[in-house]
Task: inverse folding
């Protein structure tokens, strides 16, 4: 079930009407049942895996909290990690490694037919697996108390607004909200309706329309010109932001209507000046998870520059692999790691030399333009169908930005038409430094903005129920 479908609209209206009529504890039972239905609507066969992860980590958390002996605590942690990472590794990466083994040993005449099997990827497994891992690790570190109510914990894992594409929530934030009675304020309701409306605008008007531009360039066997590759990459930058931020906004908005706050996952990521800042503003829940549960345990920035750079590269390469079982995602992660290392090395060298950069409006603009293109080349790697397509498109871009007969009617004008209104709203929010800047406009201007968004969606929106990009991860 996807947010941009009539099925979800009907589902949420029924769930919400009954939810508002129930007291606290029955509310949690109802939300859990609704969340399991939401997940089963995609494929009921994998509901058992979700429930299995919930049961394993619930009891591992309780056991770890009761034990004082370090070996027993570590053993329970190992059980949780083995179950979760084993399931994630099998369902998400089995096909990838099997195909690569075939490619490696096939030319040598070794037959590996015994590993030829198509494994279906359970939707949302990367998100709820990371959530439950962080919970057990936090209990092990004694940073949170274990949840002793199984229903509350099951809601934490399966809560339908965030279940299939995040945000990746921490137990310390979500479980207390589930465990206590909730009061829905007028402000929460107003913010929730805005987030839902803006999220649908980002998805059905911006992202799904730009997907046609992107697909035209990145189709198998496509031969776009250098300028068409650039325009399609710009289009993908807005498509993936509109798609994923749109999902996050709908998730946060529906959750606000239920009296539960989810964390912000995107915060003006294209207005930053460095890769470090980008990862503090893009997919914030994932970047903080990678920092807290991978980068810092590896050693973080302790131990000198060389180890810091190594830890950054490992973290980002694994972060790239988390996005998908393909070499393009691994390369994207390596590219992001290199960008972090290069920018950090420049900063470290300047600090050692006593050089102080004085930022002016012009220098900030130049750094911003540079960073946009660093980011967009990363999106070219991310969106490419294969490593060979990355090489082909890179040669076309750096070989000259030539145009063709399709350049403006197929790529340029649609990019301006669908990304332009979104960018205008985004710039206004950024200037005001307020994600709710539009609802705070004077009434006449506010309602004009609402009407414009509504008619743009009504007249030009893509209501085909297209799946969100991050559902595949």
Result:
């Amino acid at each position: 079930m996807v947010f941009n479908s009539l099925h979800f609209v009907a589902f949420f209206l029924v769930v919400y009407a009954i939810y508002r009529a129930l007291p606290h504890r029955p509310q949690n039972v109802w939300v859990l049942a609704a969340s399991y239905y939401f997940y089963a609507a995609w494929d009921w066969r994998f509901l058992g895996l979700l429930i299995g992860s919930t049961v394993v980590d619930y009891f591992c958390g309780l056991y770890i909290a009761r034990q004082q002996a370090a070996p027993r605590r570590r053993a329970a942690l190992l059980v949780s990690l083995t179950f979760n990472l084993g399931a994630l590794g099998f369902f998400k990466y089995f096909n990838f490694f099997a195909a690569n083994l075939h490619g490696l040993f096939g030319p040598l005449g070794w037959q590996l037919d015994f590993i030829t099997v198509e494994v279906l990827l359970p939707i949302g497994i990367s998100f709820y697996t990371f959530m439950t891992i962080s919970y057990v690790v936090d209990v092990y570190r004694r940073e949170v108390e274990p949840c002793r109510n199984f229903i509350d914990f099951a809601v934490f894992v399966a809560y339908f607004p965030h279940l299939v594409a995040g945000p990746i929530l921490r137990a310390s934030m979500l479980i207390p909200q589930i465990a206590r009675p909730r009061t829905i304020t007028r402000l929460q309701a107003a913010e929730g309706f805005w987030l839902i409306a803006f999220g649908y605008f980002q998805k059905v008007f911006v992202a799904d329309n730009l997907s046609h531009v992107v697909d035209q360039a990145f189709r198998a066997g496509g031969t776009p010109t250098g300028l068409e590759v650039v325009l399609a990459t710009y289009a993908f930058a807005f498509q993936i932001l509109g798609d994923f931020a749109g999902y996050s906004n709908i998730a946060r908005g529906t959750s606000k209507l239920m009296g539960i706050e989810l964390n912000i996952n995107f915060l003006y990521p294209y207005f930053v000046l460095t890769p470090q800042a980008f990862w503090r503003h893009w997919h914030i829940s994932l970047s903080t998870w990678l920092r807290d549960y991978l980068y810092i345990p590896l050693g973080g920035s302790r131990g000198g520059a060389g180890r810091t750079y190594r830890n950054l590269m490992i973290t980002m390469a694994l972060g790239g692999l988390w996005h998908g079982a393909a070499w393009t995602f691994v390369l994207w992660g390596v590219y992001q790691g290199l960008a972090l290392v290069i920018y950090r090395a420049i900063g470290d060298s300047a600090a050692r030399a006593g050089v102080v950069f004085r930022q002016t409006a012009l220098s900030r603009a130049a750094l911003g333009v540079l960073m946009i293109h660093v980011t967009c080349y990363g999106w070219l790697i991310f969106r490419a169908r294969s490593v060979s397509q990355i090489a082909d498109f890179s040669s076309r871009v750096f070989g000259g930005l030539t145009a063709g007969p399709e350049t403006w009617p197929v790529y340029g004008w649609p990019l301006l038409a669908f990304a332009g209104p979104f960018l205008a709203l985004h710039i206004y929010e950024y200037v005001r430094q307020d994600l709710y800047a539009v609802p705070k406009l004077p009434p006449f201007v506010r309602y004009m903005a609402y009407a414009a968004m509504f008619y743009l969606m009504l007249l030009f929106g893509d209501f085909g129920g297209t799946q969100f990009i991050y559902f595949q991860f």
Notes: The CA atoms of residues 46 and 122 lie 6 Å apart.
